[in-house]
Specification:
Length: 371
């Protein structure tokens, strides 16, 4: 019986490994070139818009008046965000693979930052992270499961943290977004539904397959979806593996709790960046905790923009939400600085981690603590 189980696991692992290359098809040279070209066009468009609206002399004057201690604080928040993101990956990886190093977890994290920002809907990050982990002898199935678990814990932490702040700053939030409250509510509901679906996969996978499989079959019959049988098999295998990993992680409540805490700190650091930009350009009158609901709302808007790094939507959303908070003449430069922190720097730094290095071979020394 044990041999049969091991054989099934090996067969599944081979299927997952075989599917990694197709999963990272978003990273082919043509797509990367197109995405970088689009990012460059967005950057140039933003710069031209700033020149037309603010004028070169006003931009230079504003740069001379920047409070650079807040600029440095913004960089500090960005680094803290990356470190927390690394711990969210490193903690469960270390539990399964005792030889996992923090440096490798950092490398995988930054590669995820790069590909999340150069692909629509952050779709390229997880496949590339899983691929990178397989290069140090991590099982692809373990990698995808840990990344999926990391994602759901991060989403729960994000919503928990945001709701908590919104409750304490509800009057300010309601006044600031009185014309857009329904969008904010819709965004929260969609994220909560996504969390519920993921949890159902972890505890009641048959409910998901019962609902989703007929839909895929139907889309295949009406020729909207190609190779529907293969997609169903791939989906079912993924659900089974995630369910198994969910059960294992459910027995490791301390691991989940640690990841949750670091996810909260990561959200805190991310939201802090907007406040640092706000103060860097001499703005005052709005406190840190009032900035957070606005930034959370912006993050919800960005989730639904189908461009690399939510380009155009992120800039437009920032202008829409913060123009009444930032002093006149500072909003456009604030957008540029904010995107530098949250978009351009992650791409630049993440690309550096793609430079080949001589890595020590990781033994596939997998612990039984989660088995």
């Amino acid at each position: 019986m044990d041999n049969n189980i091991d054989n099934d696991k090996n067969v599944y692992e081979k299927k997952v490994n075989a599917n990694i290359e197709p999963e990272i098809k978003v990273t082919n040279k043509r797509m990367i070139f197109f995405n970088f070209a689009l990012i460059l066009v967005i950057f140039i468009g933003l710069f031209i818009y700033m020149l037309n609206v603010d004028g070169l002399s006003n931009i230079l004057q504003l740069l001379n008046s920047v409070d650079y201690k807040w600029v440095l604080a913004g960089f500090g928040s960005l680094i803290i965000m990356w470190i927390c993101d690394t711990f969210c990956l490193h903690i469960p990886l270390k539990k399964i693979y005792p030889n996992q190093t923090f440096l490798n977890s950092l490398k995988v994290t930054m590669i995820g930052q790069l590909f999340n920002n150069i692909t629509p809907f952050c779709s390229g990050g997880q496949p590339m992270q899983a691929y990178e982990l397989t290069q140090t002898n991590k099982k692809a199935s373990d990698s995808f499961s840990i990344l999926a678990m990391k994602f759901i814990i991060a989403q729960i932490a994000l919503i928990f943290f945001t709701l908590l702040v919104v409750i304490f700053q509800f009057d300010f939030f309601l006044n600031l977004f009185k014309d857009y409250v329904w969008i904010a509510i819709s965004g929260f509901v969609i994220n909560i539904i996504a969390i519920i679906v993921t949890i159902l996969i972890g505890i009641k996978p048959r409910i998901i397959t019962f609902i989703v499989n007929p839909i895929i079959n139907f889309l295949g019959k009406i020729k909207i979806l190609r190779k529907s049988d293969e997609k169903i098999e791939k989906l079912n295998n993924g659900i089974i593996n995630f369910n198994n990993q969910f059960k294992k992680m459910n027995t490791q409540k301390l691991v989940v709790f640690k990841v949750f805490i670091f996810s909260i700190l990561q959200s805190f650091a991310y939201y802090s960046i907007t406040y640092m930009v706000y103060r860097a350009f001499g703005n005052s009158g709005i406190n840190f905790w009032q900035i957070i609901p606005a930034q959370a709302f912006l993050l919800l808007i960005m989730t639904f923009v189908p461009t690399p790094g939510s380009g155009v939507g992120a800039e437009g959303g920032f202008l829409l939400l913060f123009s009444s908070i930032f002093e006149k003449g500072t909003i456009n430069m604030s957008i540029l600085f904010w995107r530098l922190y949250t978009f351009y720097l992650p791409i630049i730094i993440g690309a550096l981690f793609l430079i080949p290095t001589k890595n020590k071979q990781f033994k596939n020394n997998k612990t039984d603590s989660l088995n």
